[in-house]
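FORM 7B - TANDEM STRUCTURE REPORT

SECTION 1: FIRST PROTEIN
SEQUENCE AND C-ALPHA CELLS:
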Amino acid sequence: MSNPFFVQPKIVPKLDPHFLPAVLEQRAFREMARSTGAEATLGLALEQADGSVFHHETVLLPAAYPKAKEENFRQVERMVKFLLWARGGFRIYVDGPAGMVEELKNYYRVSPTGKFDSEIIGERIYGHPIEVVHTAELPAEKSVTAPLGRHWNGCRIGFDLGGSDRKVAAVIDGKCVFSEEIVWDPYFQPDPQYHFDGVMDSLRRAAAHLPRVDGIGGSAAGVYVNNRVKVASLFRGVSKDLFDSRVKDMFLDLRKEWIGVPFDVVNDGDVTALAASMSLDVNSVLGVAMGTSTAAGYVNQEGNITSWLNELAFTPEDYRSDGPVDEWSGDRGCGVQFFSQQAVGRLLVPAGIECPVEMPLPEKLKHVQGLMERCDDRARKIYESIGVCFGYAIAHYSEFYEFDHVLVLGRVTSGEGGDVIIEQARRVLEVEFPELGERLRFHVPDEKDKRHGQAVAAASLPVIN
C-alpha cells in the first residue's frame, strides 16, 4: 500500500483484507491538507434539470505539496462521483483551481468511467451531458422535497421489481391479504415484452385476491420521472432503439391495461426508505436494500423524499487501485460489489466455498444461506466481511446525508446472515466512529417484510379519490 493517505482500518474484513474504506482515506486526506496550514478550499455545486442545486465543500493540498495535483484530482473525482450518484445533477460548478476544472472536464470527455457517468446521469437522466463550470461564486442552494405514499384506503396492488425476482402484494385498507415472489431474469433479456408480460402476470395474480383494484403502485430499480423510465439496470439487455420505443413508456402502457386505475412507479430506494419510515413511525431514515444490486432511499427529517438519486450501488466505497470492478460502469470499488448478491458471489472463492461458475448469483446466495443454517464458518465469514464493509460505508454516507435511522433489508439480509451483517456494522461504528455508534439506530424488518415490505409499501403510492 503506497498510498500516502492509507489508514489501516481498525477492523479488517476477513475475506477482503485489502479493503480501503473511502471514509478513512477522505478523512486522512483532509487532515493532511489542513496540517500543512496552507490548504485550499474547494466549493462544489451540482445542478439538476429542475433547477435544484446542492452544495458540498472540501479542502485540497497546497500546490507545493508532493504530488498535490495527482492526489487532489483523485480525491475530488471520487467525491464528485459520490455526489453525482447520490445527489444527481448534470452541471458541476467548481469554485477552486482552474486546473482542477480542466481535469474534470477532460475526465468526463475521455475516461471510460467518466463517459459512463456523463451518459447515464447526464444525458439519459437529465437530458444533458455533464458540464463542468469554473466559477468564483456558486449558485444558491435550492431543493425540492415532496411527500410520498402513505395512502391506504381502498383495494391496492403493490409490486417490487428486482434483478432476480419480482414481488407483488394485494392490500385492502392497509392490510396485506396476499403476497408472492416469482423468480425472473430481466437483466439481459433483449425483448421488453418479457418485462411487460412479467409485470402484468404479477398484477393479475394479485388482482385475483381483491374484490376490485383501486390503485397500483410500483417499486423498481432505476430512475423514473412521471412513470417514465429514464435509466434502469433491469433493461440493460434491451437495445437503445427498443428502449426508446418500448421501455421508456412501458409503465404508461401497463396503466392503459388497467383502465382508470391510478398507477405510480418510483425508484425502489425511495420505497425502501418509505417502508422504514412507515413501519417505524420515524423520519430521518436511510434505507439500504441488498439484493441483486444495492438500492437506497432517503426520507428527510420532515418525512419527505428529495429529488436526489440515491443510487448508492455506484458510489465509491473502496479506494484501492485494484478493487473489484462493477460490471456495468467498469469502475472500481463501487457499493454494488460489497452490498449485494454480487458481493456474496465475489467472496465465495476467498471463503473456500466451491460453486459452479455458471451457477446464477441467486442460487449461489441460496447455497451460502443453506450453509449458514448449518453453522458453516465459511458462510459466516462472508456475512462478517459484508458487515464490516457496510459499517465503513455507513460512516461514509453520514458525511453526505443526515439520518438517525438505518433500515437494512433485501434478499442478502435474509436469515441469520442479516443479523451478522448488522452486528459487524455496529461493531465498526462503535470502534471507529463512536459518535455514530451511539446515535444511529439500525432496524431490520421481520423475514416477510424483508422480502415483501417494499411491495406492500409501494401499494400506498397512488392517491385514490
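SECTION 2: SECOND PROTEIN
SEQUENCE AND C-ALPHA CELLS:
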Amino acid sequence: MIKKIVLAALVVAAAIAGAGTAFRLQGTAIPGFPPPALPPAVDRAMAGHDSATVAELAQQRCRLLWTRTQRQCYEDFLLDLVAHDQVRLAIGTLALLGEQDEYIRRFGHDFAHVIGINAWKPGKDIGKTYEQCSEIFQSGCYHGIIQAVFAYNGTDSASVASLCSSTPEINRSAWLRFQCVHGIGHGLTQTYENNLPRALHGCDMLGNAWDSESCYGGAFMEFIVGGRGQSHHVHMLQGARQEGMDHSHMEGMAGMDHAAEDSAWPPFKLREPSDLLYPCSAIGDRYQQACYQMQAGLMAEVTGLDFKKIADGCDKAPERWRRWCYQGIGTYVSGVTVRVPEKGIEDCSLGDRQYQPFCFVGLVKNYVDVTAKLDDGLALCQRLTASEDIASACYVALGEEAAVLFPFMEKRKEECARAPAPFIDACRYGAGLTTDKPAAYPGH
C-alpha cells in the first residue's frame, strides 16, 4: 500500500514538473520561481508591431501569478517593450489588456505612468517621445514622460516654465498641453519627496493661472499615491542609479542649492488621519479648489469605499469648496467603478442633494479624460435627463471638455449639437459658445 502511495506521489510530482517545464518553455512565469526568458514569439510580434499577439503573450506569461507578483509581471513585460523602443506598441498592448481584464483597467493609469517614465532618457527628443503616448488610462504615459524629464534634468525655473510651452508636439492643443503641465505637478512632488507646499510653489512659477491650476492637480495626485507607497517613479529612479547618475546637482526652483532651499520648506506630513480634510486644511487659499477636487481619494483611506461617508466628509468642508469636493467624489467614483455607469450613478446619488450635480460633473469629466472621447461622456449624460439640474450640470461639463479637446469653435458647436435638444445650450455654455447660463445649471 505504501509503495502504491509513493508511486502515485512520484507520478503526480513528475506530471507537475513536466507541466511546469512546458509552461516555462512557453515563457509562462511560475509562482515561486524566477521568471523565464521571453520566448522568441515576443520578438516576432514586436517586429510586426502586432499588439494583439503581444497582449496574448503577456497574458500567457502572467496568467498563473496573483496580485502583486502578477502586476509586476505585466509591468516588466511592458517595460521590455519600452526598452526595445516600442513605446507605442506597449501602450497599444496595455489598451488591449485593459479591455480583457478588470484588474488591468483598475491599475491602468499606474501602468501607463511607468511606460512614460521609462520611455524618455537624456538624449531623446521629448516631443517625439511624447507623440508615442496616447490618451488611454487618463494619459498616464504623457505624465510619466514629464516626470522622467524632471528626474534626469532637475527642476530649475527656466525648464519648468518652458518645457510645455516650447515643445511643438506638446503645445499643439490645450488637451496635450494640460497633460504636460499636470505631469509637471507629478514631477515636482516626486522631486521634492512629497513636500506638497514646495511642489505647489513650483507650480506657481509656471507663469499663468491655467498652467498653475493644471499643475496643482498633478501635485495633489502624486502626493496621494506617494503617501500610499504607490508612487509612479520607482523604476525610472532605479534606472538612473544603475547608470550612475548623480541627482545631487539638481537646482532649486529659484536657482538655490537644495540645502539652502530645504531650510525654507519645513517637513510636511503625508497624512493626518484625525482630519478628513487634510491636506486642504493645511495649505493656502489659492490651492483649495485643486485640493478638494482630489480629496475624496484621501478620505477613502479612512472611510473605505463608503461614498455616503465620503460625501459627509465633503459636507464638513468650507461651503465655498463643497462643490469641488463633490466633483472629486465623481472623479474617484469613475476610477473605482472602472467607469460602469450604473454604479457611478448610484454612488453619485448620495450626500447633500444640493451638491450631487457636481459629483456627476466629476464623473462625466473623468469619463472623457480617460479616453479623450466625448462619446463616452455623452452616453453618460443621456442617462441623466430625468433630473434637470443634474443633466444640465453634466452637459455643461461635457461642453467644458469639448473646449479643451477642440480649439475650433465650429467643431465644439458640431459636438454640442449631438446633445438632446433641451441640453444643447448647456453644452454650448460649457464650451464657451454662449454666455447665457442655463437656468437649471447649479454652478456659478
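SECTION 3: OBSERVATIONS ON SECOND PROTEIN
Confidence is low (pLDDT under 50) at residues 8-20, 233-260.
The chain is about 65% helix and 0% strand.

SECTION 4: SIGNATURE
Preparer initials: ____
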